[in-house]
Design goal:
The chain has helices spanning 8-15, 18-25, 29-50; strands spanning 69-71, 79-84, 92-96. It is α+β, with helices and mostly antiparallel strands.
């Protein structure tokens, strides 16, 4: 996802949990857009990995905006979420169910 102008407040209200919303509102306005994109990428990656897609409301899924994390209790098995750093101004994330393996992300621009 590229960091383009967004109607951040309206979108944030649709996808952030109340706790995430409170944290997000404390951020300086120039940082809010980037953090919202990070939140969105993590939630989208997790919902795709679980097969739920957007049938599960992103607003009911609490994640962190950065750093690896494991979601354990929401779905039938734990899921690991990692950020993808494609290039400056872009954001991404990948989620997978870890089963005796470690998720390693190697980014190669083509």
């Amino acid at each position: 996802t590229q960091n383009r102008p967004l109607f951040t407040t309206g979108i944030a209200r649709q996808i952030l949990t109340p706790v995430e919303w409170a944290r997000w509102q404390e951020l300086p306005e120039p940082v809010q857009r980037a953090e919202l994109l990070r939140y969105w990428c993590r939630k989208e990656a997790l919902l795709k990995a679980t097969g739920h897609g957007l049938r599960f409301p992103p607003r009911e899924l609490m994640t962190a905006s950065s750093g690896p994390m494991v979601i354990e209790r929401l779905f039938e098995q734990p899921y690991l979420i990692r950020d993808l750093p494609p290039e400056e101004g872009f954001y991404g994330a990948v989620a997978a169910a870890p089963v005796d393996w470690q998720l390693t992300v190697i980014w190669k621009a083509i």
